[in-house]
Amino acid sequence: DGEGLGEGDCDGDSEGDLGGSGERDGDNDNLGQGSVPSLGRFYTARECARLMGFPERFVIPGQPSREHPEFEYYARFYHMIGNAVCPAVVKAVAERMLEAMRL
User: Fold this and answer.
1) What is the pTM of this model?
2) Distance of CA 45 to the CA centre of its chain
3) Domain ranges (residues) in the chain
């Protein structure tokens, strides 16, 4: 339900559940017989960056625009963050390499 997210999240509304189709499920508490329960919601771009270890000061590059509508912008971002290596992992590997090279 968005708990724990600070003010200033720049990547849209993180409240509520999203069904498997990406549609908002406004009434998943009162499921009727034969109803399918909500599968939860998708992670926001900011939440994905947090999970990968990017600091809060990390600026999500670009902005949705006429040339790159919101869907295309976020599709590219999710692809980019999914291919990223956690900054803490890069730092740890680089430190060990520098130690090995005695720099």
Assistant:
1) 0.52
2) 3
3) 1-42, 45-100
